[in-house]
């Protein structure tokens, strides 16, 4: 090869390598996993209104700032959460009084909601412990994994929803599958709740799948409220990962949920977007264009322009207790950024005289913070919802419900 050509080739290879450092194989920037490369950022002030008023008490938080933040999340991130429907009906399709070897009663309930000529059915699996005083507190899981994880026959028992363990601890346990509310793919996420709200589909701030899952959680709450066996004032909502994004959003919107659990929820869940550690706003919008409002895409590679960050989502849950988890190997979901979100939400809990005193730095691995309105653990291991996570959820609920 001629010398000139060789030099050109070397330069060309170096150029391609340099590009590869900034961009991964597909679209979008390389994912950062190094703390030293987290950019400097300023979080939007949770206690300062858009017109510059400083919030000093819970009355002005509730009257002014809270509704403002809720609307910012609707308009810029998750889309609106429509509430109106023409009717709702609850039908027990199957009842097994001696499920789990007699420990519990199984109810398979169909929740039908209609508006004009359209309807949606959410199927709920519910176990209520037998021989206990009622009404009884309940854990509801938004199931975003295989339906077998919440198998009503209990032929399959998964750590993802350890129903027996929850029953043994004196709680009712329930689950619905996200696909009933919005199938989790770009092709047909509209085939569920969105059929009731076609106007959402055209709107820049229209809800999509995550909003639909949150909406469905609220309809399950409608069912709990009229079921005398369930203490609907002590209902815990649990979600993992994408389900954990939905549990936070549902908890922010629907103040009937007493406790919110968000497991490994990562980007647009508990993690601060501005850290750009692990998954980013651009990455999530490219990979999952059917999750968030169209308007969210304008923050791709533009996190600092967001009028919110995720600590403000957690703040919307105040004063109700919230529990966030991470897993040590789940850097994609930014464990540190999830903890910092919780920490930055604390000032809103303080307006209510909150009992939390979170340490500035995340706790050690497997050292749960339970006796606090803001609970947290970072479990050793991978991205998953496990029995360890649930054990801590139960401890947190026991603490807050004095059980
Ligand atoms: C993907 C996605 C995450 C999501 C996760 C899950 O990894 O990028 O945002 O939380 O799936 O739901 O398991």
TrEMBL record:
Domain 4-O-methyl-glucuronoyl methylesterase-like: 111-353
GO molecular function annotations of the record: carboxylic ester hydrolase activity
InterPro entries: AB_hydrolase_fold (IPR029058), FrsA_esterase (IPR050261), GCE-like_dom (IPR054579)
Name of the protein in its database record: 4-O-methyl-glucuronoyl methylesterase-like domain-containing protein
Record has Signal as a keyword: yes
Keywords in alphabetical order: Hydrolase, Serine esterase, Signal
Keyword Repressor assigned: no
